[in-house]
Design goal:
This protein is mostly helical. The chain contains nine helices and no strands. It has a domain of about 130 residues: Tetracycline Repressor, domain 2.
Length: about 180
């Protein structure tokens, strides 16, 4: 294999694809190095361990969602129903994407009890997800009801993504998307 220089972001993005495709536990550092076109030992120049790399991958995904999706919820110049629809439409293309979609839900289930260091960072992602959805629902509902609807919405989204993957049918997510937006009518 020819030696190639890659940057940390490339390693993170390639790792994200592999973790999504095959899972955290079955992806080896050798697999990641191969996907990046570098020697396995070169990965340790960037990351001391696979766990440290995964923490960076989770932070990368979380940061992307905060900037590109969750931020929409806080733009009060947009009608609440449009905000929620826009959030889920953007998320749709990411969740359904074969290479990167559904990553945190999968990793959360796969690692929550096995690798406790991941739990707080995955929880932070989902807290931001709840808060964004709650922000939009609070335009129509009391705080308590908006909180309940947000928790239910995130659970429904994660469940629909699981079903979409099991049945290879993205309509599960699309139907959930429509139902969650309709709650603002």
């Amino acid at each position: 294999m020819a030696k190639q220089k890659v940057d940390e972001q490339t390693v993170i993005k390639e790792s994200l694809k592999l973790f999504r495709q095959t899972s955290y536990h079955t992806t080896s550092m050798a697999d990641i190095a191969k996907a990046c076109g570098i020697q396995k030992g070169s990965l340790y120049h960037y990351f001391a361990s696979k766990e440290e790399l995964m923490m960076k991958v989770i932070a990368f995904v979380h940061g992307f969602f905060k900037e590109e999706i969750f931020a929409i919820a806080y733009d009060e110049t947009i009608d609440p129903m449009v905000r929620l629809d826009k959030m889920f439409s953007r998320a749709d293309s990411i969740f359904i994407n074969k290479e990167t979609g559904k990553m945190l839900g999968n990793v959360g289930v796969e690692t929550a009890l096995v690798i406790p260091e991941f739990q707080p960072v995955i929880q932070a992602f989902f807290r931001d997800f709840f808060n964004a959805v709650q922000k939009v629902y609070s335009s129509k509902y009391s705080e308590n009801i908006a909180n309940e609807l947000a928790e239910r919405a995130v659970a429904e989204i994660e469940g629909s993504l699981l079903l979409a993957r099991i049945f290879n049918d993205n309509n599960f997510f699309k139907t959930t998307h429509k139902r969650l937006v309709a709650r603002l009518q």
